[in-house]
C-alpha cells in the first residue's frame, strides 16, 4: 500500500491516437493523477526538463522499430532530467539530480522492480547544466559522438558534411569533427543558423538549404569532395550529397527528419550507386547501442565544454506539459534553434 502525497498532482500528456502526417491536438490527451509516496525500493522524481526529440514522431507510429511504439493511452515517452523528491532506494537520495526517461509528465514514479532496468541515473551538475545534460552531455551528444567517431572514423584533413547542423546532434558532430582536425561543412535552414555554426562553433562553411542550392554549396565548400556525411535529414539532401562523395566515403544514417511526417512511403536515395562507384559505405546508428560507453564520452565532452572547445546551445521553451504538443512540432518546422528542451519546473 502506498501513501498519497496529497498536495501533489501529476499532469501528464498521453498518446490519444496515432497521427497521420504532422501530430495535432487530437493526438494528445491530458490527464492528472495524485502523486503517491514511493513503496520500498522505489524513487519519486520531480521532472525539471524534458528532451523533445524528432524520434518521438516515430514512437507514435505502429510498427516494428528499434524500440516498441508508445501505446495508445500511455504517457508519451520522453527523456528528461529531474530531482529526487522521495526515495526508498539506497542508491538515490532526496535532492539528487537524475536523468532518465520520465515521459511527458511532472512526476516520475519509478517502482523498485524498474529502478535497475530503467534509465534512471544520477548526474553531476559540476560537469554541465541541466539542459546541457540533455544536449551535448546527453542522448544527442552521445549520438553525434559515437556516430562520428565509431562509424565515421574521421581522419585529420578529411571533409565532413553534417545536415541539421545547428540542431542538437549536428552541433556536436561538427564540433567533434573540428576537434578531430577535419574540414567541416554544415547544412542548415536559414542565415541565422548558418552564421551561428560558422561564427560560434567554428565550422568552415554552412550551406543554407532553404535559400540556396545544396549542390552548388557542396561544389564551392567541399573542393576535395566529401569523406564523411553525417545525415540527420534524409530525402533530397542525402541524394545530393551522394553525388559528391569520395572513394571510401562513410555515410552515417542517423536520422531522416524530412521523412518523419510523410503520408507516402519514405523516399529512398536515388543515387545509391555512388556507393558502388566510390567503394563507400552507408551505415545506420542507434545511440542506445553505446550506453556502456556513455561515461567515457561524457567525460571527454565535459572536458571540451570546460576548456571552451565545445559550445552547447539549447532552445528552452517554458510552459510545461500543456505546451508539449506545440513545442514538439517546432522540430519539424525548424523553429527550434539548438537542442529543443521543454521546461517543466524551475531547476
Ligand atoms: N539514430 C539515433 O540514435 C538518433 C539519436 C538522436 C537523434 N537522431 C536523429 O538525428 C536527427 C537530428 O535530431 P536532433 O535531436 O538533433 O534534432 P534537431 O536537429 O535539434 O532539430 C530538428 C531540425 O531538423 C531540421 N529539419 C526539420 N525538417 C527538415 C526537413 N524537411 N529537411 C531538412 N531539415 C529539416 C530543422 O533544422 P533546419 O532549420 O536546419 O531545417 C530542425 O531544427 C533526427 O533525424 C533524429 O531523428 C538519431
Task: Please provide a written account of the structure.
The protein has two domains: 161 residues, Medium-chain alcohol dehydrogenases, catalytic domain (Quinone Oxidoreductase, Chain A, domain 1); 150 residues, NAD(P)-binding Rossmann-like Domain (Rossmann fold, 3-Layer(aba) Sandwich), CATH 3.40.50. The chain is 26% helix and 27% strand. It is an alpha/beta fold. It is globular and about 65 Å long. The chain contains ten helices and 15 strands. The model has no long low-confidence stretch (mean pLDDT 96). Helix 3 crosses helix 4 and helix 3 crosses helix 9. NADP nicotinamide-adenine-dinucleotide phosphate binds next to helix 3, helix 4, helix 10 and strand 15.
CATH topology of the largest domain: Quinone Oxidoreductase, Chain A, domain 1
Task: Give the topology string: H per helix, E per strand.
Answer: EEEHEEEHEHEHEHEHEHEHEHEHE
Q: Count up the domains.
A: 2
Shape: globular
**Cα radius of gyration in angstroms:** 21 Å
Topology (SSEs and partners):
Layout: E1 4-15, E2 28-36, E3 43-51, H1 55-59, E4 79-87, E5 97-100, E6 107-110, H2 112-115, E7 121-122, H3 139-152, E8 159-163, H4 168-179, E9 183-188, H5 191-199, E10 205-208, H6 214-221, E11 226-231, H7 235-242, E12 245-253, H8 273-277, E13 281-284, H9 294-307, E14 314-317, H10 324-333, E15 339-343
Parallel strand pairs: 8-9, 8-11, 9-10, 11-12, 12-13, 14-15
Antiparallel strand pairs: 1-2, 3-4, 3-6, 3-15, 4-5, 5-7
Bound molecules: NADP nicotinamide-adenine-dinucleotide phosphate.
